Predict the structure.
Amino acid sequence: MTYQIAVLVKQVPDLNAMRIDSATGKPIYGGQMVISSYDDYAIEEAIKLKEAFGAEVTVIAAGPAVAKDAVSRALAMGADKGILLEFASNDVDTRVLARVLADQLAGGGFDLILTGQSSDDISTGQIGPQVAEYLGLPSVSSVIGLEANGATLSLVRDTEDGKQKVSVETPVLIMASSGLNEPRYPSLKGIMAAKKKPLDISKVDVTASQDIVWSEPFREERAATGTIIADIPPAEAAAQLAAWLREKKLI
Amino acid sequence: MGFKKVLVIGEAGPDGIRPESLEAVTAARELADASGAELAGAVIGANAAGAAQTFASTGLSTVYLADDPRLTTDLPMTKALATIVESSGADVVILAGTTTGRDVAARLGARLNAAVASDVLALDIAEGDVVARRSILGGKSLVAVTLKNDPLRILSLRAGSWAKADTNQPAGTVVSVTVELADSDTRVRIEGFATGEESGGVRLQDADTIVAGGRGLKEPQNFALVETLAQTVGGAVAASRAVVDAGWRPHHEQIGQTGQSVTPRLYIAVGISGAVQHNVGMQGSEYIVAINRDPDAPIFKIASFGIVGDLFEVVPALTAELAK
Amino acid sequence: MDDDRFDAIVVGAGPAGITAARELALAGLSVVVLERGQFPGSKNVSGGILYRQPTEQFAPGFEAEAPLERPIIEQRYLALTEDAMLGGIFRSMKFAQPPYNAYSVLRAEFDQWFASTAEAAGAEIYPEFTIVDLIWENGKVAGVTTGDTEGELLAHCVILADGANSLLAKAAGLHREWQPSEQALIAKELIALPAEKIDDRFALPHGLGAAYEIFGESTWGLLGYGFIYTNKESVSIGTGALLQDLIDSGRNVNDMLDRFKKHPAIAPLIAGGETIEYAAHLIPELNVDRLPQVYADGVVVVGDAAGLLNPVNREGANLSMLSGKLAAETIIEAKAKGDFSARTLAAYRQRLDQSIILDDMKKVSKMTPFAHDRPHLLSEYPRLAADVALEYLTVDGISKKEKQKKIAAMVKGLPKRRLIGDALGALKTQR
Ligand SMILES: Cc1cc2nc3c(=O)[nH]c(=O)nc-3n(C[C@H](O)[C@H](O)[C@H](O)COP(=O)(O)OP(=O)(O)OC[C@H]3O[C@@H](n4cnc5c(N)ncnc54)[C@H](O)[C@@H]3O)c2cc1C
Ligand SMILES: Cc1cc2nc3c(=O)[nH]c(=O)nc-3n(C[C@H](O)[C@H](O)[C@H](O)COP(=O)(O)OP(=O)(O)OC[C@H]3O[C@@H](n4cnc5c(N)ncnc54)[C@H](O)[C@@H]3O)c2cc1C
Ligand SMILES: Nc1ncnc2c1ncn2[C@@H]1O[C@H](COP(=O)(O)O)[C@@H](O)[C@H]1O
C-alpha cells in the first residue's frame, strides 16, 4: 500500500548558537532558524517509508512567514508537498495551535501523522497528543523504532521501564524521539528539486487564549551551598568525604 | 479565590504505584493546603487495585479507581479520566512526571478545553491563579506559566522535583468507577518489552544511592571505577548523555532532560560537568556529591559535598576508604 | 535544454563567478552557481577596496544598493623601519564627493548583495555545497559533483571561479601546481573600532575613508606590503609576502601580522580595537607569460582561479569581474552556435588578450621580478632615507653645512653601480 503521511514540523532558533544573557537571563539567539531536532527524525521516518513502500509525504508547519524555510528543507529532504499555516507568532497556547493543525489535517485521509516528541524551544510535548485528541486518533509517544507491515505498525517506545513494544493499526499519530533513525542532509539535487515542489501558504488568524500566560524567560543562579574541598591530597579528600557520608548516614 | 478540589492522578507501574505518583501527591498537597482545597486522587489502569490502596494511604480523602484491562494507553485512559474529573468537580488536576502522565495531561486539556502546563518544576499560587514553573530552551532558561482557567487547570510534573509522599497516612476510601470504551479507543496494543530492556535490577527511580559517571572517565572501561564504587556503597549505576551518546552505557541509564529523572538520597557525580540538561534529572536528590577536576564545573553549584580533584586518584581512594 | 543539463554551472560565488552568472542569466541562459561557503562572501573575510568605475560596469547601481563602507579620499604609501615611518600621502577633496573613485567594502556583505542581483537576473545560487570534482564525458567537461549521492550536476559549460589555487583547474589538468614564487600569502584581520575613533585617528571627515599601503618592516623587508583600510566601524589590516620568500626566510605571516600590528607607528591606529575576523588567503602573482590555460572543451577558468589580477595595484575584484564578463560573452556565443568545444571557447582567451587585464599584468610582471631581485629597495633605502631625515631634522647645534656633508657621506656609502642599475631597471618596468 502507499501511505498518506503528514509530518508536523516546527521552526525554532538554533540552540547551539544561543547564549543566555547572564544579567537578564534572557536568551540571545545567534544563528539561523532551524527545524526542531526531533522533527528531523519524523521527516526522515516518513521518507524512509516512502522509499520502502511508496507514500505521499505532506509537511505542515504553522508559524511566521520565515517558517517557510523549514518546510523547504523538509521538501529538500524528500517530502512531496509543503503547507505553511502562517500566523504572526508561535506564542499561542498549544490547544490553539493543535486545533489549527488538526483542522488542516482533518479529512486529509492520512494514515500516519508524525510529530517530534517535543520542540527544542518550549518542549511542551503537548501538540502531538492534543492534535490526536482533536482528531480522535490514538497517539504513541517516545517512539524510537518503527516497522510497517501494511496497516499494522510495530513500534518501540523509550519509557521509564525500558524499551516498550507496541503495535497499532493506522490511522495513528506518532511522536518521534531521538534514535528512531539517522536524519539525512538534503542533497544538491534534493534542494534543487524542492524549489519546484508545491508549497502553499495560507494565512490563519489565531486568537491567543485568555486562560494561560507565559512569562518572559528568566534564569535562577543557584549559589554554591555545599562544602567544596580543593588542593588537598586525594587520600585526605577521600577520607573527609567518607567521614561526611558516615555522619550523614548515607552509607 | 481558593480551589475546591485538587485531584492527583496515580499511575500503576510494574511494581505497584509509581514513585513519580507519590511525588505528585506532595506537589498536590502543597496546592491543596495553600488554598484550603480538598485533596482527592484517582488511579486509572489495568490491575490497579493494589496501587490504588497504597495511593489512598498517602492521606487522600478519596481515590477514584478505574480498573480495566483496556486502560493501558493514552486514549482510553484520557476518556476514563475525563469522566472522573467531571463527576468529581475537581478544579485542579495533577499528573505525575511520567511518559503517560505527560501525554494524558495534554490530551485531557484538549478534551476538556483546560489550560495545561507540562514538566512542571515548582508550583505557586498568585492572586488565586496557579503559577507553574517549567524549563525551556533545552533547560537553559525558565518560564512561569500562569493558569487562569476557570473551572479547570491541568498540570504534569517533572519527575524528581518533589519528595515522595509517605504511604502510612490514614487511608481514604477507594471508589470504583466503570468506564465506557469503544473498540476504536483501544487500537494501540502493548506487546511487552524489547528483550534485555525490561527494567532489570533496581529501577533507577527506586535506588537510594546512585553513582553516575560522565565523559571525565575518558574511556568506557574506566566505568569500572564507577561500578566498584557503586557496589561498595550499594547503589545503582547511571550516566550522563555524553557517555550514553558515545555508546559506553545504555540509554535507560541516562539521567537528565532526555533521560531519567531521579531523586535518590545520595547522588554521586563522577566526571560530570553538571550541564543544566543533566542537573534537571537529579537536582531533587537529597544529597549530591561531585568529584570533578574543574573547580568551575557547574556541578559544584548544586553539590552538597564536592571534591575538586582527579577522579582517577580520588575515586579509588574513596572506594578503599569506604571498604574499611 | 537536452535532458536536465544547464547551459552553465559556475563554481564559486566570488566577484568573478557572480559576474559571469549574472551576465549569462541576463542573456537568458540557464545557470547555477555553487558556493562552498555558508553564503556568498562568507569565505572572503575582511575587507577590500572597490573602484567605482569598473564595478559600476559589472554591478550597475551598486552605489545606491550595495552595502558599502567608506568612500576613499586618501591614499598613503608608507615605509617602515624598526623605529621610523616615512612616505607619501595623497588626499584629494575631489575624492570626497560623487562620483567617488573607490570604496572600502566588507566582502562578506558585498558579495552577498552582488549574488542577490545575479539571482534576480535568474541565476540559481546554492551555498553550502563544495564541488570536489569535475564530471567528464568523452574527454570533455560535462558537469560537477559534490561527491555525495545526488550531488552530480550536468551542464554544457563549467565556469571555474573557485579562487586562488583552484584545485578544480588542477584536477582538470588546466593548471600545473603553482610555484611558491607565483603566489603571495596574506594574513588579514578585521578590527572593530567606533566610527568616531576611526575618524579621529585617521584624520578623516566623518564617514570618509583612507587606504594605507605600507612597505619595509611591515613585511620584514620581504617583497609584499602591509595594508590598512578604514571601514565604517572597523579597519581591515593585513600583511603578506611571496610564499617563496616566506619559506626561504623561515617567516610566517601570522607572526608578520602580529609584528606589524605592534609597530610603534601602527599600534596607536588600532589600539583598543577587538579583532572580529581573521584569515590567511593566497593571492596569485603569476607572470603574464606563464598564465595557465584558461579554457578547454566545456570549461573556462575566471578570476583568481586563472591568476587574472593585478596584485601591485590592488585590483583583483574588478579584474576578476571583467574576466567573468568576458567568459560570459564567449559562452553566450557558444550557446548560439550550440558548440561549447575548446575551439569556440578559445575566443575567451582572445578577449582577455585584448583587455586591460593583460595590459596591466604585463607591466606588473616586469615590476615584480625587478623589485624581487633588489631586496634592498624595501629595507636599505627606507632605512637610509630615515637616517638622512633624522640627521637633517635633529637640531643639535651642528651647522646645516656640517649636516649636508654627513648626509653626502651616508649616501656615498651606497654602491654607485647598484644605484644606477636600480634607476635603469625602474625605468624599464615603466616602458
Ligand atoms: C536538548 C538537549 C538535551 C540534553 N539532555 C541531556 C540529558 O538528558 N542528560 C545529560 O546528561 N545531558 C544532556 N544533554 C547534554 C548536556 O548538555 C551535556 O553535554 C552533557 O551532560 C555533558 O556530559 P558530561 O558532563 O559527562 O561531559 P562533559 O560536559 O564533557 O564533562 C566532563 C567533566 O569531567 C571533568 N573531568 C575530566 N577529566 C577529569 C578527571 N581526570 N578527574 C575529574 N574530573 C574530570 C571535566 O572537568 C568536565 O567537567 C542534553 C543537551 C541538549 C542540547
Ligand atoms: C588580503 C587580500 C586583500 C585583497 N584586497 C583587495 C582589494 O582591496 N581590492 C581588490 O579589488 N581585490 C583585492 N583582493 C583580491 C580579491 O579579493 C580577489 O582578486 C577576488 O576576490 C577574486 O575573485 P574571485 O571570484 O576570482 O575569487 P574569490 O573571491 O576568492 O571567490 C572564490 C569563491 O569560490 C568558492 N569556492 C572555492 N572552491 C570551491 C569549491 N570547490 N566549491 C564551491 N565553491 C568554492 C570560495 O568559497 C569563494 O567564495 C585581495 C585579496 C586578498 C587575499
Ligand atoms: N508551530 C508548529 N507547527 C507545526 N508543528 C508543530 C508546531 N509546534 C509544535 N509542532 C509539532 O509538535 C511537536 C512537539 O512540540 P511541542 O509540543 O512544542 O513540544 C514538534 O516536534 C512538532 O512536530
